[in-house]
Amino acid sequence: MSITSAPPIKSKNRALHGRSFWIVTFAFLTSMAFATAPTPLYALYQQRSGFSAFTITLIFATYALGVLSTLITIGHLSDRVGRRRLLLPSVGLILISAAIFIFFPDLPGLLTARLVSGMGVGMLTATATAYLTELHTVARPGAGLKRAEITATAANIGGLGLGPLISGLLAQFAPAPLQLTYLVFAFLLLLSLALLLRTPETVSVSDRWEYRLQRISVPREHRGSFAAAAMMAFVSFGMFGLFSSLAPVLIRGTLGITSLAVAGGVTFVVFASAAVMQMFSSRWALTTQIRSGLLTLGLGLVLVTGGILFASMPLLLLGGVVAGSGSGIAFKAGLGTAIGISSPEQRGEVIAGIFLAGYLGMSLPVLMLGALMLVIPLVPAVLGFGALLLLLLALTALLSVRASR
Hints:
The chain has 405 residues and is mostly helical. The chain has one domain: Growth Hormone, Chain: A. The protein has 15 helices and two strands. It is globular, with a radius of gyration of 20 Å. The N terminus is likely disordered.
């Protein structure tokens, strides 16, 4: 099979690619916001059905399982079938998951809805990131890739932050909290699908190609850099996973605060800090981003653990801001590294590999924390979680130093 870029676009059509860039950004942002929208609602499900903390992490991990399953099997196919052709069904799957949340709110339905939404996100993340890069390249030839990188990571992380904020406010102050949030997002997802129908395809392929599972094709000389980038995604998403799954449980269990708006707001602060720092650090050298991201993430992890240990809301918020900032910088550095070392023909595969590492980091440590909370009190379990992430941060720093050499 031969893969080529789409034919050159005339200057008069650059405006179409420029508009499409923002349409894809909107669809990306909305889809990622939906991915974390259930976070404050877990407390309501827990009160209604008596779920344990481990059950909540299991529901969340089912979402990560869905992401991983399509990252491995489908997420890389946009290099072969086209960006828009894969983006449309991915948003469609996320829309289907919203319907499942509305009509089947018991545990089997929640698990199914999270699995389906994860499958949609797994198809979407690498596809939308590559799509934005190519739309930007046509709309602004010769302008470099920084704008596309910043927008993609901000839509990804910023969307993850907006979801809990919106759902937390709706759950706290509006009626039917377990239905209204999903209805609002269903409308936005339908709008995204309608707008995506007007975007141009950026990849052309031959009619003959052979399916294969996801693989990560990295030139031999760049494998050390890719390993470091993958670990940056793993540890960054490990912190995101903590606030995406157990934030309401931790806030209620250690601080006695039951407000869903507060739970959603705390999660929003973490992701908003990440998105802001991604934009602020965009002009930093890559080595500066890596060092600053890992150091800031480590400091934030210590502060978050201290906030839970001493039952201090100000310390927890400060830790969330610092940890979110570090996670955002580190993830951006990892994604930028992956884009920089990949050819256009392999870009979707390499980006999918970074997200694969990220969602493993989002699920595995949090599952460990949920399991620990079944047998030991909350505070010691969180201390164990913090110690694990600190060890992984040290490993990531070592890999980064070796790659730079």
